Please model this.
Amino acid sequence: MIFDRVKSLDAILLTAEKKGLKRSLGAFQLTMLGIGGVIGTGIFVLTSEAAQKAGPGMLLSFVAAGFVCAVAALCYSELASMVPVSGSAYTYTYAVVGELLAWMVGWALILEYAVGASAVAVGWSNHAVGLLEGLGFHFPSALSNADALMAHVETAFGSPATPDMIAAMQTGGWVNLPAIVITGLATWLLVVGTTESARVNAVLVGIKIVALTGFIALTLPVLHASNFHPFMPTGGSGVLGAAASIFFAYVGFDAVSTAAEETKNPQRNVPIGLIGSLLICTIFYLLVASGAIGALGAQPVTSTAGAVLSPGSVEIAGRCAGIVAGGAVEPLVCSKEALVHVLDTIGWPGVGRLVGLAAVLALPSVVLMMMFGQTRVFFTMARDGLLPARLASVHPRFRTPHVVTVVTGFAAALAAAFLPVGKLADYSNSGTLFAFLMVAVSVMVLRITDPGRTRPFRTPVVWIVAPLAIIGCLGLYVSLPLTAILVLPGWGALGLLIYFLYSRQRSYVGQGVIDADGDRDPAG
Model:
């Protein structure tokens, strides 16, 4: 039977107790970790992407995505408080529905975290380059994006060379060097240590909140109701499509659960970090998005034929370049640093530069959080024997999983070098939605199979909340672009190949080894 390998919760807890990581994080640090992961990506990076898909209706998109995350967070909170160990959704699935599905969840989490880190690194690059431009330093476009490279690749595979695509070839770049640099910096910081990373993150989160508060204070007073009409220019499908993309901006909260094994009093602090960070971030999202729409407008850009263009595509890059070359004000949906552009346009260029500086300082906290989550998932999978034991090695001085951190950093930097932020975010979402769905399933299954186990945090009305999480995840998944939808089964097929050729026969559970009892050390 391929579904017969279930690792008991007691074995998981014993394993973590024997070979666990240092417990050093409290409720405040966890909340800051969650806020650091959530606030930033959606507002600083994906606002223009959402506006292109839904126009002002992206406000509804934020609400829809936030609701799905809220019900998923309640499911996460119950499992994280019961099983306060590294691994997040992977660990929960292993304990409830078995090794095969757990492997698939862990494999999908690579899309969430590693690809997600790449997306934010590209967003940071956009703001860093914009800040340098504002200060009078020109950073070569050939080294700040890969639009020209992607345009050449698409035409080489048979796509027509439209005027918009030709414009992208002429103005675009070949590699995103700043994104590579920031990913490398985050990798180094994570190797140095978890506590140090959390302290730096808390400072960066503070800078981020101050900047967004200033943006809200300056834009809401000049809000124009006319900028909200038409409210849904692309209809309900556009709102759902934007929600599917914006979902990426909320996923940072689940990295709180991956830090459970390094948390003091996890039964209390993990639920506080999960739900508290999500609530704070949702309020900020709605206020900032309202200010951006009301101050500048957020109508989608269309092709010369009148079709709404896909955000992040080569065509829209060329179209936006043509609009600006014609002397028109750059639309919000075209800007790679949307909030800075809004402030520039309404007469606050100096404050705009400060907001850009805040993004440059603060977005690394999101890269940090994403890579933190990925390394801990890999660490746990290696500790279970499903990945090479070397990946579970802990640095003798820093007590961090340094090998897997470097591997993750290299992969994230490679993706950030060549792919645009919108595509990376959508690819990341496909893996995240699958993981969240499995968490909701696990909560319900465990309520039936182990009802007597202590639950420091219980998901309220679980038989309503968990199904809503499942339906919401499925709804957002089918609203993703077709390429992002296809990424998950393609990536999953590769994962299954690795599992049956390598991991299944090396699994400690499959061998009957309970490493918590000292029979075997996966790091040794």
Residues 516-524 have pLDDT under 50 and may be disordered. The two ends are 30 Å apart (CA to CA).
